[in-house]
Amino acid sequence: MSLAAGPGRGHVAHGQLPRELRLVVDKHVAYIQSLDTRRDELEYHLTEHLRIGGIYWGLTALHLLGHPDALPRDGLLAYVLSCLHDDGGFGAAPGHDAHILYTGYSVQILTMIDGFDALEEKMAGGKHKIATFIANLQQPDGRFAGDQWGETDTRFLFSAFYTLSLLGYMPHQRPSEPPMINVQAATAYIKACHNSDGGFGVAPGAESHSGQVFTCVGALSVAGELDSYLGEEGKDSLGAWLSERQLGSGGLNGRPEKLVDVCYSWWVGSSLAMIDRLHWLDQAKLTTFILQCQDPDEGGIADRPEDMVDVFHTVFGIAGLSLVGYPGIGEVDPA
Q1: Which cofactor is essential here (predicted)?
Q2: For the purposes of burial, counting CB atoms within 10 Å of the CB of 27, is it exposed (0-12), middle (13-18) or buried (19 or more)?
């Protein structure tokens, strides 16, 4: 799966009116299928560190588009398992260090392609080993490191929560067993990242950012603490900050004074959906903005109109359309 941008650009077909825009599903499927044929391009090799992420983004987009089998399952399975380390972690590509982000992506891929039996054949007790790898990355204050080198980020905490949940190893899923992680310390850390403007930052005292809002709200949702922590007043405050991310074009930005970007259709939209405030966005204008960022000729979605398409913005544009109920797209879980 190539992470290289292009060759197409987001644009509106000549003479096409906004009300005539539609999602070119077949073109997007063909675009994603073509990404693994670009191995002779330099960008294919320069983006090796994102390979598992690219597979996850492409496969998720295909599932939402109703074409879950458009990529060869055996090839996906073989590649993902080639990234598995003896300690239960997955790297971004074969030979890369294990990292919690790519472990999470790999578990999501295995979930989508029903690959856990193959995991067990390759590594006995594989699910438990993956869960142990993740649990060992938790720090005393509740945070999670991404890998053995110790960088911490709320993204890593959310990755830990959703991956353990998919594996069935969150403490509430195994009440009769000793907990593998300290959920209370982790959610206390998330709450310390909550700012007075209603948003969340990457660390306590850090600027609010839509991507970090998603990870923090998602973690609280997986832990079952979202409603009890925020309450209606907290949801209103956060919803106000998130809805202010929508600009005149209909697109969304990640924080004040920044450009709109299709990927925030997901980060902002999913966060609003989790707090039942998605209707605070102008969903029709958001839909139009996303469709203006697709390449109607070659497929793929860009961050903004006239920019080059890539698989990252393709999946988050499609996921954003799913959130607002665009016809023919599968339903996505906002958490």
Answers
A1: Zn(2+)
A2: middle
Give the pLDDT confidence of 175-212 residue by residue, as tens digits: 999 999 999 999 999 999 999 999 999 999 999 999 99
In degrees, to the nearest 5, what angle opens at C-alpha 165 toward C-alphas 104 and 151?
45
Cα 196 → chain centroid? 26
pLDDT above 80: residue 320: yes
Instruction: Give the whole-angstrom CA distance, residue 78 versus residue 153.
Output: 30
306 burial via Cβ count (<10 Å: 0-12, 13-18, 19+): exposed
Are 2 and 35 contacting, i.e. CB atoms less than 8 angstroms apart? yes
**Shortest CA distance to 292 belongs to which of 277, 302, 278, 280?**
302
Q: Backbone phi, then psi, for 273, in 5-degree steps?
A: -65, -40
CA distances from 267 to 6, 187, 218 (A): 23, 20, 10
CB neighbours (10 Å) of residue 3? Answer: 22
Structure-block tokens of residue 272:
């609003």
Per-residue three-class SS string for the chain: CCCCCCCCECCCCCCCCHHHCCCCHHHHHHHHHHHHHCCCCHHHHHCHHHHHHHHHHHHHHHHHCCCCCCCCHHHHHHHHHHCECCCCCEECCCCCCECHHHHHHHHHHHHHCCCHHHHHHHCCCHHHHHHHHHHCCECCCCCEECCCCCCECHHHHHHHHHHHHHHCCCHHHCCCCCCCCCHHHHHHHHHHCECCCCCECCCCCCCCCHHHHHHHHHHHHHCCCHHHHHHHHHHHHHHHHHHCCECCCCCECCCCCCCCCCCHHHHHHHHHHHCCCHHHCCHHHHHHHHHHCECCCCCCEECCCCCEEEHHHHHHHHHHHHHCCCCCCCCCCCC
Q: Which two three-digit tokens encode residue 265?
A: 């259709």
What's the pLDDT tens digit per position in 33-63? Answer: 999 888 888 888 888 899 999 999 999 999 9
